[in-house]
Amino acid sequence: MTAPFRLYGAELSPYSVKVRAYLGYKGVDFEWLPRTNARQEEFQRYAKLPLIPVLVDADDNALQDSTPIIEKLETDFAENSIVPEEASLAFLSALIEDYADEWVNKAMFHYRWSYPEDQESAAKRITDMIFDGAEKPEGIEEQVRIRMIGRLYHVGSSPETAPLIEGSFARLLGLLNTLLAKRPFLFGGRPSLADFGLAGQLAQLNSDPTPGAILRAQAPNVVRWLERMEKPKAEGPFASFAEVSADFAELLRDEIAGAYLIWMDANARAVANDASGVSVDIGGTNFVQKPQRYAAKAFNELKRKRGLVDDAALAALLAEAGIEAILSAAQQDDGDAADDEVDDEGDGDGEE
Ligand SMILES: N[C@@H](CCC(=O)N[C@@H](CS)C(=O)NCC(=O)O)C(=O)O
């Protein structure tokens, strides 16, 4: 792909903000284009699916989905790589990024659309962006609010699952706050793919009233890291796997094996069986939601990446956390079912 780029996105879209921070870090020339009503036709010309972000290059090639966008740019712009050279650390980074995209996103969507103060704040900011100074139609904020509340089921948020989702968020914050007291970024002196994925989601949570107050009260190191992640700069090299792996043991066991991968596995099975819902026990909570094809595809991609790394220390860390068991027992690739599917997409934030 060739610079300069145009990035269609939104301030309230975690995946858009993730790609924007990444482009800034790589120092490539790009223009940030909020998806306003006025730009809708232009946006639709490039978007295969009605989702942001969309990245368009100087030759009018368009790319969608934040992870493949970043992976493609990494091959074209190798300097300041966000992928640690050690394959074991690179796998941890990819795993944590996917956890952010597919699981932390549930907390983001849950807080934004479950509590009145958060709903009102997000509905106002989204419609401010869409109408971009033009007069808003009567009742439009309320329409957005109602529409997004109706989509809580798509991510599995309900009064029954709220304690699980909120507990998961609190646990993540505690672990990250400890980790980021030691280093500027997750894996050392420079940001990795995992930093960009997590910061994309957590910056949204920080901007919403209810989870933002929790972040500021309980995780000051995370708040400072989020500020760094808006325009990240390399401050030193990546650490080695041996230096940092123990710091991730709890996150891998309690969050990644204990919640996210249980859900990813159940979701992949539901998608393969064409089931109408996913229902799975996560730590004593019955977690129910609409199957998501994109997450099933991401799960296959994760298994593929795991299969590429032959490293005894990584295998030991993942086995100890209970991750190897889930990844190896998980069912076979069901192909590229997610391509061209839109029915389960678009629950990343609340854009109209
Ligand atoms: N897997 C995609 C997810 C993109 C996504 O869900 N985008 C949301 C905003 S964050 C969206 O465009 N939703 C459409 C809508 O709300 O109209 C990625 O990584 O980029």
CATH names the topology of the largest domain as Glutathione S-transferase Yfyf (Class Pi), Chain A, domain 2
CATH architecture of the largest domain: Up-down Bundle
**Which CATH class of the largest domain applies here?**
Mainly Alpha
- Mean model confidence by pLDDT: 94
Main sheet attributes: strand count, strand direction, barrel closure? 4 strands, mixed
State the domain count.
Answer: 2
What order do the strands of the largest sheet run in, or round the barrel if closed? 2-1-3-4
List low-pLDDT spans. 334-344
Query: What's the tally of helices?
Result: 16
Radius of gyration over alpha carbons?
A: 19 Å
* Distance between the amino and carboxyl termini: 28 Å
Helix content: 55-70%
